[in-house]
Every structure is written in C-alpha cells, then in structure tokens.
Amino acid sequence: MTERVPYDRPGALLFAATSPASPSSLAPGGLSGGSGQSPSARPEEENAASARLLPPGEAGLAGSIVRVRIPLPFPLRWVNSYLIPDSSEAGADRGWSLVDPGLHTPEAIAVWERVLAELDLKPAKLSRIVLTHHHPDHYGLAGWFQQRSGGAPVLLSPEGRRQVERLWGPGTPLAGETLRLFEQHGLGSARLADMRTHLESFLLQVNPQPELTELRAGECVRMGGADWLAIHTPGHAFGHLCLYQPEERLMLAGDHVLPRITPNISFIPGEDGDPLGSYLRSLAEIAHYPVQLALPGHRDPFPDLPGRAAEIARHHEERLAKMAAALAVPLSAAELCEAYFGKELTVHSLRFALSETIAHLIRLEALGLAEREERDGLIRYRACRVGEGRK
Ligand SMILES: [Zn+2]
To answer: Residue 59: what pLDDT?
Structure first.
C-alpha cells in the first residue's frame, strides 16, 4: 500500500510505499553501524501510520519533492527514490525528474506502477533519471524507466559508468576479480562458491541496462526548476555524487551519509586504492555545506548532516582502533572479519563485511599502523607501531 505522509518541516511532503519485503532487522554486527543514533526528525515507524496530508508545492521545492520507498529483498528493506516535479503545475503535462529508481524486482515495479498512477505522472514526461551511484539497489530500474519514457537521459558519474561496464558489461570482469581478491584475503572455497552465485544473481535485477550520460562533479542538473550541484563524494562507491540545492539547502545524499546505519565502505578491485581514506575526506567536506534537510538513499530524511557525518567518522576511527588491536597476531582479512562480524553471516552480508574489513586494513596500512605480509598467495596483516610500517 502507499500513503502520503508528512515530514516535520511544514509543507514538506513525503510519499511512502510500505515495503512488502521482510521486516527483518538490520544487517548483523557492525555492518549496520549502530554507532549512535542519528537525530532523525521522525522515527520511520511513524511514517507508515501518519495520515496528515499537505498539498504538494506549498513550501517551495522541498514541498514538492516526493519520496518513494522502493522495497529491497535484503535487510536494508527499502531504497529511497525521489520524484521531483519540474513545475508546480498538476496534471498530465507535468514533467518530472527521478533520482535513484531502485532495484529491478516485480515488487518494485508494482510499487512504481501504483505511485505513478496515484500521482498522475506520465512516463513519457520523465525528463531525466539521476543516479547518485551505480550500485544495483539505486541503478537497477534506470533502464526500465528509460525505455518507458522513450529515452530520458540517465545521468551517472564517469567513474560509475566505468564500474557499470566492469560489473555488468561483457564477461562481467569484476565478479572474477572480486572472487580472486577474497581468495587472496583468506576466504575458504565453500564460501567462494556461494559468493560467485551471489554476485551473478544481480544481473537480472539491473536489466535492461540504460544508455548512460555522464554527469561530472561540479556540473549542475536542473530539477524542479532549480539547479542541483553534483558533488564528488567517493568512499561508499567509486564516483558517488551528492546533489546539493543551495537556495533551499537540500542535499540528496545518496548513500554517502545515512541516518541510523553506517554506509558500507568496501575495497573493490580496480577502484579506489584507499576507499576509507577517500570516504573520511569526503565526509568532512560534505559537512561544510549548509543543509536544512538531507535526503538519504536509505532510512528517513534528517536535518543534521554535519552531526551525522561526525558520528560516522567516529565509528570508523573506533573500528580502526579495534582492528589494529586485534592484529597483535597476524590475521587474514577473512579471519579478522569472522572475529569482528561473526561466523553466521549470509553470503550477502559476508560480501559487505569482508570488503569493508579489507578497506579498514588498507587504511591501517596507509596510516602506518599495520603491515601486509604475503605468503603462498595469502595476504595477512599484523599491527606495527607508528612509523614502523611501510609508507
Ligand atoms: Zn544503497
């Protein structure tokens, strides 16, 4: 079912599609972050129950943006898509923009069909699809919308575009590279076999593949009659973009800053050599933008972007310190991952946990706090005192 729900800022209207996905709790262990609760303005549980209606457009751009919760078949439960009408005019002639349409599943299509009908938005009037990053839960339906719209441009960063080709282009080279990486970092053969199946399972959920147009950091996109600045915010994804609207001080944050959960920071072969270092830098940078409301890719919109960015940075500093302490004996990333996140992870969670462990180990190495040893094709890390490690 879908329903309109109010946000605490007068006039800001959200559109919620209740998720038919499993109501299970968050991903296990530190994956879900849990380092402090963000000052989310309204608990998400209340969203579904609220019935107060406000007409769109009453409070400028913020009042006309519609959030659609698209169900996901994993513990994140939903991804936030944002609809931004091109003008306040109602009716069938209204153009609109779409940010991060969601994963291609039958459940997601059913939600979209219902939402478009209820809002009287015509696919042929879709002006553009903007992607904060290329991960399947955001990118998956871009091609479906492009086809339905008759060719609306799909905007993605140049780095994201390259990753799309490596992930889902001919030969899907990134899957093999990821499996080799995990093997070097100590993942056993049974888990590797599960991982191969898991990585291949996403192909159907991102089809059809869209024709992509590059959106570069520093460029502006016109949405809702206003300019949105694309800001490079790498770390969660190579080439991740946040979109900033300065007059209304709105930030489409993608998965760069999330409330209540910490974005996954993964080392991916062939991307950023130190994703956690990039992430912590871009987290500090985003906190400088004056923002009254951050619109994240998961969970609920929230007001305090700098406060949440600082909490997430602290979470990673604490995790780095704990992992460094565990490396008194040399450990592979797979061993450290098991010690930190536990043995019982699903293959989906294991992929994130192991990639995130590797990202932290690489950061420790860059800080001179850990040293990599490679023997018989297996990589292990051990702690070293400041200044002792390789630079
Ligand atoms: Zn996401």
So the answer is: 56
